[in-house]
Each structure stands twice: as C-alpha cells, then as structure tokens.
Amino acid sequence: xxxxxxxxxxxxxxxxxxxxxxxxxxxxxxxxxxxxxxxxxxxxxxxxxxxxxxxxxxxxxxxxxxxxxxxxxxxxxxxxxxxxxxxxxxxxxxxxxxxxxxxxxxxxxxxxxxxxxxxxxxxxxxxxxxxxxxxxxxxxxxxxxxxxxxxxxxxxxxxxxxxxxxxxxxxxxxxxxxxxxxxxxxxxxxxxxxxxxxxxxxxxxxxxxxxxxxxxxxxxxxxxxxxxxxxxxxxxxxxxxxxxxxxxxxxxxxxxxxxxxxxxxx
Length: 266
Fold this sequence. Notes:
Blueprint: E1 10-23, E2 26-39, E3 43-47, H1 54-61, E4 69-74, E5 77-78, E6 88-91, H2 103-107, H3 109-113, H4 118-131, H5 147-159, E7 165-169, H6 177-194, E8 197-202, H7 205-211, E9 214-218, E10 225-230, H8 238-243, H9 247-257
Helix pairs in contact: 5-6, 7-9
C-alpha cells in the first residue's frame, strides 16, 4: 500500500457501492456496484444525466446517507454513515446560508464553532471576503444578495475551514454563466494553491472538462460507472481551459458517452 504522503495514494476509495430506497412500498435502485478512487490532490468530476444518482453517491461519501452495500474509505479508513469525517467540506447545490446572520457571520460560522479566537476569526474572514470579491457586503444579510453572491458566500464558508477534501454538489448550476465562470476560478485557485482533493457532481460537460483532471461518467439510474476519462489541459484557469485546442475533443468524447447528439442529422 502506498504511503498517504504519496501523490498516487488513494485519498478516497469507493468500492462496490449500492443504494436502494423505498418509495410507496417499492424498492427504487439508485446506485449499482459503483467503484472508483480519487488520488490525493486530484480533482474528479462525477458526470451523468439528471436523476442518475450522482448526488446520492456524493451524500454517501459525505456520510449523510447510509449505503445499502459496498464500502467507502478515506485515507484507508471506512467512513461511518451519520458520523462526520474530519477535514471534509461539503458545498450544497443550494446556498443553505443562515438568513439571520450577516455575510461575515455566515462565513465565520464554522470558525466560531471550532473555537477560533475572535481576532483571528475576523482576520481570516476579511481575507476571504476580499478574495471572493465580497468587500463592502460583510454586514449584508442573505436576503439582500443575489443568488450568485449567496453561493459565493457558501463556497467561501466551506473553504475558510481549510478542509483537505471538498465535496461539491452542483454548486454553480443555478447561476448565470458569468458568475459561474468567476466562482469556478475562485474554486480552482483555492484547490491548486492548497492541494485540495475534490469530487464535483455535475451534469454540465463544459464544467467537468474545464475543472477536473478525471471525469467518471455514470449511466442513467441506477448509476453505474460507464467510463473514466483523463483530462489533460494544464490550463491555469477555467476560462483558459475552454480556449485550449483539446477542449473540444474532450467535450465531444463525453457527449458521445452520454449519448448526446451534438450535430444536426439530415
């Protein structure tokens, strides 16, 4: 077994994962025998059609849902459903901000729970507010912010805790394209600067190619692993990645995997 300090070590190892739900007395199979791994410092996207079970897989990794069978290991240790795994941060599709707390107080909530002294907490919040382009909105409440700004606060609230592993459930799906590009850049900078290990759930092929190093393509429900694609663009930003001459090739290969028609037929 590789030491955990090795860049090739499996940080997250998903083995034979299955999940079924009961709906009106009928068993609904959501995930069937899914296996994949994520290396330390790697950015992996789970790509599949809507309703395919991507978020269910992520929620099992996050210990929010108990698998029907299979195993999930983080740093070689099995995770336990319902028990938080240290150094794992989760960004939901919806911003989930506390409406009664200001932007600064929302961002610093985790630091407050962790007992970080007030002076240090304020300094870290101020730095993150500047990096996220939220200067001037520190004392604003979520109801006064746009959807993009609220999602920016939610992302920074997770990043400020400096988790080693980031689990992202379509965090940009409800945003306009310009805001999405901006937040993708904020995320990629943080990931590459601090060598985070990331799993991103998305149904957006463009986003998967621009951000990730590997794309795990899932089938429709029940989710199964169809293929795994390596992405090698080497771009410094998501915008630069989209301008790479190889981007189109990756995009069309993933479209083919998902059986998406990209050209008109006679």
